[in-house]
Amino acid sequence: MPCCTVKHLSHVFCASIIACYSIPSFSAYQSIYHKPEQQANSFLDILKEGHASLYFRGRYEYANDDSPQPDSNPIDPISFKSSRAYTLTSRLAYTTAHMCNFWGLMEFNNVSSYWNKHHNSGAFTTPQRKEFTEIPDAKGTSLNQALIAYQGLYNTQLILGRQKIKLDNGRYVGSVDFRQTPQSFDAITIENKYITGLELFYSYIDSVNTVLQNQDTALFAKRSNHTHLFNSSYDIYPFGTITGYFYYIKDQAVASLSSSTYGLRYNGAIDLQRAKFLFVSEYAFQSSNSYNPVDYNAEYYLVEGAFSHPICDIGLGYEWLEGNKLSTGKAFMTPLSDYHIFNGWADRFSVTPALGLTDFYLYANARYRQIEFEAAYHNFHAEANSTKFGHEIDLGLSYSFLKYYKIYAGLADFRGKTSNNIADSQRFWLSLSAEIA
């Protein structure tokens, strides 16, 4: 794409979102940062030869949750009111040219909110509208990324500063790009590909900047951490990729989120000439560490298979997050995850229930020119006692046009098991985005 010009900007300002895209469960770790092509010969050229990019995303979101409000009368509970949010993300990023193998990136993110009398962005950001269903897109401005990278060592990259991190399919660590303000981390990261087929990753996280980082009044919008992430993957061609990981989370703001998790993941593919059969299996074990006041152990399993064709994908899977029927705070948890793309788009299970969760799901994606369609069905149960939580249907349709623009419509319809007092929830999105890089 061309660099930003006044003509391009005039088109963008008339625009506004893409929204709900999903990261396949089959993806392996790949760095999201790469050394710029432009080379500088002086410190002044580092900025002069850099590259700016703009991104705009306007979105209408409707959310309904029939759950009772926390402070309502338990005898005659009052459900949350339907919420509507009209928001616009404006994002400006600047990547410098590289010099002596150093380069930098800075990104600002602003969210504007319009006609917001029915918009509750949650976490005490809009206490005057707490009776409405939460839509966590708060208005405000944030410095979403600010980093310096160094690539002077052979097949090694060092990244220092505020950055995005996505590991594997985002189940444990992700950037939650669906929300208007993405999640980022204040961290030191080392990536190494010295040995052919082997990718090594380590990151020390000092702070987690959540999707509400642009609001100082938000509860735990920025959480102080002493977290270590280790991830390594090896390509065992032609059999697939095996990944091992260890994540030590020490959350100083919310001690109950602290844990130690280690696991193995296997991605494979079988070539069927015109199509491929993809499969993934994963196991993880999690335990509380010394910083968590609750002592617990929990396990995680994932099995998924899919047929992939250039014009469509069809797959099914089963995900299992262990819980505990005797006490809370002992379920398998993923507090740094790209939560929206897992266990249904209605976000009913963005936090693992105390009883744990099993999710049997089917999905299909289709592509034709600039049109993409996706559909998914989920069946949810409690892991600890097999209580039925409900089922969900998700539908999404997007259309890309005029090189820079994308329009998206999405629907999530969760139907709770009434006999188990699980409330229904629905969400709808209509968005238009424009990106000039």
UniProtKB/TrEMBL annotation:
Pfam families: Alginate_exp. Residues 121-307 form the Alginate export domain. InterPro entries: Alginate_export_dom, Porin_dom_sf. This is Alginate export family protein. It comes from Candidatus Berkiella cookevillensis.
